[in-house]
Known about the structure:
Keywords: Membrane, Transmembrane, Transmembrane helix. This is Acyltransferase 3 domain-containing protein. This protein is mainly alpha-helical. It folds into 2 domains: 311 residues, no CATH class; 156 residues, SGNH hydrolase (Rossmann fold). It is 63% helix and 5% strand. The chain contains 25 helices and 7 strands. The strands form 2 sheets. A 5-stranded parallel β-sheet has the order 4-3-5-6-7, sandwiched between helices. It has a two-stranded antiparallel sheet with strand order 1-2. It starts with a strand and ends in a 10-residue tail after the last helix.
Amino acid sequence: MPKPVDSRTTYIPALDGLRTIAVMAVLFYHLDASWAPGGLLGVAVFFTLSGYLISTNLLRAKYRHDSFRLSTFWLRRSRRLVPAVVVTVAAVFLVTALSTPGELGDRVGESISSLLYVNNWYVIAQGQSYFDQFESTGPLDHMWSLSIEEQFYLVWPLVLALLFALFGRRRRAKWFLGGATLALAAASFAWMAHLSNVGADATRIYEGTDTRAGGLLLGALLAILLVRRNGTAEIKRFPAEVSGLVGLAVIVVLVAGMPDDSPFLFGGGLVVLSFATMAAIYSILDQRTLVSRVLGIAPMRWIGERSYGIYLWHLPVTVYLPKELDDMPLARGAAVIVLSFLLAAMSWTLVEDPIRRNGVVEPFRQWRAARRRARRDEVPGPGTPRTIFAGATVVLVAVALMGLPAAVTGGARPGENLEADLEALAQRQEAAQAAAPKLPTRKMPTGDRITAIGDSVMLASSMALEEEFPGIYVDGAVSRHYEALPTIISNMEAAGTLDQFVVLGFGTNGAAREGEFEDIVDLLGEDRVIILVMPYGDRWYMPEAKQQVIDFAKKYDNVYGAEWCQAATADTTLLRDDLIHPTLTGATAYADAVHNALQQWVDREDGVPSTC
Length: 612
C-alpha cells in the first residue's frame, strides 16, 4: 500500500535540508571553491523546489475551496519575500554611500529593479555578463533569481487557473493538467537550447524568465501529479528510496563536475538537474527514506529555514570584505559564511518571521506598545525591520570600512561622545518613566490574520468560519488529536500560513496528554493569541477535555476559551444525529463562539470560559 504523505499537516524537515544543499552550493560557487564549479546550479534546485511548493499550496486551496484564493496567496508571498529584500537593498545602498560613493550610480538601477522584481531583465538590457561579473562582483548581482521567482508567482497561478478552466472538469483532469504543464516546461527548455545553439548571449539565456521557467514548471508538474483532492500526496516507498539516492547523487555530481562554461549547461544540464531535484523531492516526501532522514537532521533544518536570508546577504558580505582577504581564501570563506549566517539569523528572527506571521503593521504596533510599557530601557527593542536594518548596516559598514585603504583621523576624545549619549539616554528615560503607559487599542482581527486548526467538528464548521472571518485559513481533519499539532504547527510555520491568531478545535477524539498543550504553547509562542474551543460530546474522556480548556485559559494569558460546548448544551438541535458534529446552524454557532472569544481579547477581558 502506498503511504500517503500530507505535507499540509506534517512538517517535512528534509525539504529544509534540500534548501541547505542549494544555498551552500551557491555560496561556495561565489567563493570560487574549486570543488563546486557548478554551484550556480543551486539556484535551479531552488526553482524546482519552489515550483513544487507553490503549486502544492495552490492546488490544495483549489481542491478544498474550489478557488485558488489568489489575493491571499499573493499577500502571503509578499509578506514572506519582500521585507527581507527591502532591508537588504536599503542596507547595501547606504553602505555604498558611506564606503564607495562613486558606485552609487550603479546601485540605483540595480536597487530599483530588485525592488520591482525585474532585475533579471534589467541586467540583460544593460548588457552585463553574469559569468564575467565575479571578477568585479556587485552586491546585488544575485537578485536576478528572486525576480524570476516573483514573476513566476504572479503569472503561474493565472496560467494554472486557465488550465483548470480548460481541463479541470475532464475525467482525467490531472493528466491533462500535467501534460499541459510538461509541454510548457519542454517549450522553455527547448527555447533555452535553441538560443544556446544560435550563439545568444549566455546571460540572456541564464537569466531570462522564459528560458528558466522550465525548472519551476517541472516542480509544478510534480505537485500536479502527486497532490490529490483530499490534499495528500501519494508516495510509494521503494521508488521513493531509490529516486532520492539517485536524485541527490546527480545533484552532487553536477555541482562538483559541471563548470559554468560547460556547453552541457544549456544543452541539457539544467534539464537533468531539474529532474534530479524532482526525484529528491519525491523521496523526501516519505520521511522514512534514507535521504529524508539524513537531510532532516537539525543543522540542515536550521540552515534551510534561513536559506533565503543567507542567499540575500552572502553576496553583499563577499563584496564588502577587505581585499586583503582575497589572498587568504580560507579566512575569506569563513568570514563570508559566519557573517552571512549571522545576518540571515537576524533577518529571520526580526523581519521575515514576524512579518510573514503578523503582516507589516502588527509587528510595529507590538514594538511601539512594548516601548510605551518600557520603564527602564529606552533602547529600541528587537522585533522590527528597522532593527535588522540598523544591525545589518552596522555589520556591512564595519566590513566595508575594514577594506578602506586609510582610516579617518581626528574627532572627539575617547569617552566624550559616550558621556553625552549616556546623559541624553538618562534624560529620555526619566521622561519615559514620568509618562503613564497607555494600552494600545485592540481591533477584531480580520480573517487573513487567523489560522484555525482542528478535528472533524472544526471541519464541519469551516464554511461558517470562512463566512464569519473572510480570508481565514482553516485546516480541519477527521480523527485528529492534540498529538498531531506540533507537526502541523511546524509545517505551517515553514509554509508561512500560521498567523498571529490561532484557533484550536480539539478534544473530540481525546483529551491532551500530560505536557502536550504546554509544548504546543511553547511552539506557538507567547506573542500569538490562542483561541481554544471547548469540545462537546458524551465520550468518557470529555469531562477532562473540557476542564483542560478552562485550566489552560487560566494558566496562560494569551489563551481564550470559545464556548462551543455551552452553545451545544443549551440547544442540541445545533447538532447532527451523532450529537457531536454541528448542523449548518450549529456551525454558525461554532463560529460565533470563536468570534466571542476573540471579542474577549479585544476587550481585554478574562479569557476563561464557564464550566460546561
